[in-house]
Specification:
globular, 6-stranded mixed beta sheet, 2 domains, alpha/beta, 331 residues, 5-stranded mixed beta sheet, D-Maltodextrin-Binding Protein, domain 2, single chain
């Protein structure tokens, strides 16, 4: 049986150890970053995530006094980028900006992932979420969402839609729209970036797509593409004449695209908290919002790591049900 003296000695050792750990973590945060920080973006240059990532990198450089670069790692529905980060040293010098595809959907749809969405990425903050515009080609001969969905039903398997990834918010929207209008009957063409989809829309190689506002607006104003819906609760100043999904009776299809930041699992909490605090301060800055967030059709979230974790748990439960009911293909 341990004596009182030994108990006191053990307790003292434990307290000393805890104090040293806390001090070490504090030092890590105080000296962070110790070198160049890399933000991995799982899409090609020019898309929403890339644009916001580069805007953030510029502001973080000023705040930290160290180089912050963006590295594009497109492919496999964000899995290439997520895997790159998951394998990186957990020192806070490699960060990741992904969407629900990386954090939730890949785990539901892919059997042979090279990373574990539940264990390999440490949540930092949800940056923003935003609306998209459903664009269709003028030569389809329809001008409203109802007419488009009717056309799809009359031509099963013939019409296409492009999206940024398998399991993307865009694919969820289209599958839900299909299920609620007579059955999902479209062909999905996944891409590694939004710019390539726009090119194919304009070139007549894909029939429709949910596009971010900054890419959609110039083509709509030029009359080259027709907007038939926006996935936002109320009409937006950018497309005041375009009905919302709510107005059209498709509330369940209001799945938004969110950009969320994480680091490799095992990154010290003190560093996670520092990055979260600094990134959130930038996202909430009015000048940054007006210049770098609002033009993308995004609204700021900038929540805490804990709130981000709670979001992942809730979203996984919700999307698991949708995946089952919508008959997604498990790869």
């Amino acid at each position: 049986m341990m004596s009182i003296r030994k108990w006191k000695l053990a307790l003292a050792c434990l307290l000393t150890s805890t104090s040293l750990i806390a001090q070490a973590q504090g030092n890590e945060a105080a000296t962070y970053p110790s070198g160049t920080v890399k933000i991995v973006v799982p899409y090609t240059p020019g898309g929403l995530t890339d644009i916001l990532g580069r805007a953030l990198a510029s502001q973080l450089e000023k705040k930290w006094g160290k180089s912050v670069i963006v590295e594009n790692k497109p492919g496999a529905s964000e899995a290439v980028g997520a895997s790159t980060v998951a394998r990186s040293k957990p020192d806070g010098l490699t960060l990741f900006i992904g969407s629900d595809a990386a954090y939730v959907v890949n785990g539901l749809l892919k059997k042979n992932l090279t990373y574990n969405p539940d264990k390999d990425l440490e949540p930092i903050t949800r940056l923003s979420e935003g609306f998209a515009v459903l664009l269709i080609r003028p030569d389809l001969g329809v001008k409203t969402l109802k007419e488009f969905l009717t056309l799809v039903q009359k031509n099963p398997g013939k019409l296409t839609f492009g999206s940024e990834a398998v399991g993307s918010a865009s694919e969820f929207r289209m599958r839900i729209l299909g299920d609620e209008s007579g059955g999902y009957k479209m062909n999905h063409i996944p891409y590694n970036g939004m710019s390539a989809i726009m090119s194919d829309l304009l070139g007549g190689r894909v029939d429709s797509s949910w596009m971010p506002s900054h890419l959609a607006k110039p083509q709509v104003e030029a009359g080259k593409l027709i907007p038939v819906a926006v996935n936002i609760p109320e009409r937006t100043w950018m497309f005041p004449d375009v009905p919302t999904l709510n107005e059209s009776g498709y509330v369940n299809a209001n799945v938004t695209f969110k950009m969320m930041m994480s680091a490799p699992a095992g990154t010290p909490k003190a560093i996670i908290d520092k990055v979260a605090t600094d990134v959130r301060s930038i996202m909430k800055d009015p000048a940054f919002y007006e210049k770098s967030v609002k033009p993308l059709g995004q609204i700021v979230i900038a929540d805490t790591p804990e709130q981000f974790k709670q979001y992942i748990q809730k979203t996984k439960a919700t999307l698991s049900k949708v995946v089952k009911e919508a008959n997604f293909n498990i790869e």
